[in-house]
Each structure stands twice: as structure tokens, then as C-alpha cells.
Amino acid sequence: MAREKEMQEFTRSFFRGRPDLSTLTHSIVRRRYLAHSGRDHLEPEEKQALKRLVEEELLKMQVCRAGAWAAGGGGGACCRGGGA
Questions:
Q1: In whole angstroms, what is the distance from residue 64 CA to residue 42 CA?
Q2: CB-based contact 34:40 (threshold 8 Å)
């Protein structure tokens, strides 16, 4: 559970302030997490958990941006990690 919490905090900070997500892959995020955590591999269940957390963050960002654009704001604080 503690490791998943660490992964969650990493993914939130990793996506904060990243406007161009088109260049990111699960593999890139996983390698950056491994470098961040000082590890050389993830167990299969950790790999799945990180993948799920990345997908959740991307969905949050997509919903936030869609709402901000619909409201005419062009991107709100939640898209930069300020909420949602």
C-alpha cells in the first residue's frame, strides 16, 4: 500500500505542468518512476498499479480540460494540479 501511495504521488507530480502528453508512453513513465525511486524493476503487480494510476491521471486531466474549455477558460487550475 505504501508503494502504491508513492506511485500515486509520483504520477500526480509527473503530469503536473506537462502540456504535451502526446510524447509520453507507459514505458517512459515507468522508466522515470524507476529512476525516481532508485529501483531497477517493478514486480508485475506494481507495473499494473502504475499503469492504472497513469490512466487515472490522464482521465482526470481530460475531464478537467474538457470542462475548462466548455466554460471558456482554456484550462483550469485542476489541469495544473490545483484540484479535481
A1: 30
A2: yes
Question: What is d(CA 72, CA 45) in angstroms, rounded to the nearest whole number?
Answer: 41
**Model confidence pLDDT, tens digit, residues 12-65:** 998 887 767 788 888 999 999 999 999 999 999 999 999 999 999 888 888 876
Under 8 Å between Cβ of 10 and 36 = yes
Separation between Cα atoms, residue 37 and residue 48, nearest integer Å: 17
Element holding 5 (H helix, E strand): helix 2-15
Contact 49, 7 (CB under 8 A): yes
Nine-digit cell string for 1: 500500500
Cβ atoms of residues 65 and 79 within 8 Å: yes
Q: Tell which phi-psi region holds residue 75, choosing left (phi > 0), alpha (psi between -120 and 50) or beta.
A: left
